[in-house]
Q: What sequence folds into this?
C-alpha cells in the first residue's frame, strides 16, 4: 500500500507527529489520570481506583487540559521518550504501544473511528473510579487495582 494512504501513526514516529496527531494518539482511557502508589523499596508502581480531581469520569478526559499543570503540579506531560521508558504506563496506552513498535488496538478511536470503543472494550476507567477528594492520601493503598 502506498505510504500516503497509510495512517499517520504507522508512518511517523511519535517524535515526528504534529501536535494534533500527538493528541489523537491518546485513546481516552483515563488510566494515566489515576492516583498511583509507588513502593520506594522495590520501585513498583500500582494504580488505584482514585481519579484525579480534573478527570471527567464519564468521558475519561481532563476537564482543564490546558491548565492542568498549574492546577495539578504532579501531572505528567507525556513525551516520546517517556512513552518508551515509563514501565508503569499500561500496555494498552497508545503512546506506549507506538513507542514500543506495536500497533494500536482495534478499540483505539483512531482504528475504530469511534471514541466509544475504548469504553465498550472495558479499557477505560469509566464507572470504576472514585474522586480523590474522598480518599485520604494515607488510604491510597486500600484502593489498588489491577488491569
A:
Amino acid at each position: 500500500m502506498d505510504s500516503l494512504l497509510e495512517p499517520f501513526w504507522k508512518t511517523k514516529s511519535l517524535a515526528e507527529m504534529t501536535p494534533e496527531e500527538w493528541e489523537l494518539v491518546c485513546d481516552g482511557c483515563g488510566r494515566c489520570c489515576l492516583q498511583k502508589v509507588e513502593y520506594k523499596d522495590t520501585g513498583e508502581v500500582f494504580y488505584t481506583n482514585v481519579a484525579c480531581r480534573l478527570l471527567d469520569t464519564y468521558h475519561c478526559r481532563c476537564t482543564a487540559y490546558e491548565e492542568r499543570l498549574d492546577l495539578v503540579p504532579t501531572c505528567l506531560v507525556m513525551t516520546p521518550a517517556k512513552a518508551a521508558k515509563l514501565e508503569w504506563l499500561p500496555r494498552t496506552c497508545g503512546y506506549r504501544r507506538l513507542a514500543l513498535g506495536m500497533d494500536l488496538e482495534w478499540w483505539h478511536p483512531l482504528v475504530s473511528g469511534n471514541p466509544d470503543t475504548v469504553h465498550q472494550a472495558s479499557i477505560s476507567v469509566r464507572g470504576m473510579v472514585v474522586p480523590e477528594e474522598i480518599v485520604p492520601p494515607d488510604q491510597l493503598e486500600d484502593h489498588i487495582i489491577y488491569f
Observations:
- The two ends are 36 Å apart (CA to CA).
- The longest strand covers residues 45-51.
- The helical segments are 8-11, 19-25, 68-71, 80-85, 94-99, 109-112, 117-120.
